[in-house]
Amino acid sequence: MTKSRHAKKELAVKRRKSAAHGANRGSTAGDSSAPKGRKKHKPTPPDELRLIPIPLKDEIHPGDSLADKLLEALRQRRTRPQSGDILVVKHKIVSKSEGRIIDLATIHPSGESIAWANRYALDPRVIELALRESRAVIRRKNGVLITETNHGFLCANSGVDVSNVNGGGHALLLPEDSDRSAADLRRALKKRTGVSIPVIITDSFGRPWREGLTEFAIGIAGMKPLRDDRGRRDSHGYTLKASVEAVADELACAAGLVCGKLNRAPACIVRGFRYDPGPGGVQELLRPAATDLFR
Description:
alpha+beta; 2 domains; three-stranded antiparallel sheet; 12 strands; CATH 3.30.1330.100; 7 helices; CofE-like fold; single chain
């Protein structure tokens, strides 16, 4: 083997190790190098973080203006969006306003969906919808159907849900393009208030190896979803090499504490968090299959 070929082989091995390390810690495999000029910069933690729930008295219907509904609810609380705020919205009111509601009586499940549903006492119509809304089935075992949605999300039943819709007769799908939905809501709020704030749309997903649901960002506009701390030094002087923090998901989880399924507050304002402005986009949070060690 020539020196040139040997050097190339060693470089390839280093890249694979770096990609695997980043996959475990949250960095992307495509760019494992730390951004320049980070060592001297030290991010300042917020003094206080506030979560302001936005309860809605009325049901959201297809064609409703979410911006108008949310601003009216904020007016009743004698508050309004401020520069630096972040709006976090549960996807259900977004999907409802966009008409992503399916009458289950119109769904005719396939034999495959019926057999799977009957085996585990599930609704075959929901299973059929989940398969239609997916581009791949990742796992199907013990009555649990894990799919990859057309957006690229890995979740149960493609995010198809029948809770908080109308008692079980209809199912709700995820927004067709959740980043676009977030951007549209952001523009509508700016038009009405003159204040431009980021918008995060969330949904509840399960996680491998952990019980319970937690919130995930499924649509983002107006902020960077990741904070890259590689190249910065910790309090002991160690240079961080694989610390890429999913701040959009962390904000989604924080909002989930006040935006539960049972308290009729499907949105909240996060106040006091210092985010990095940017166009945003949920695709930045999706790990490529090539570096996903758990798929």
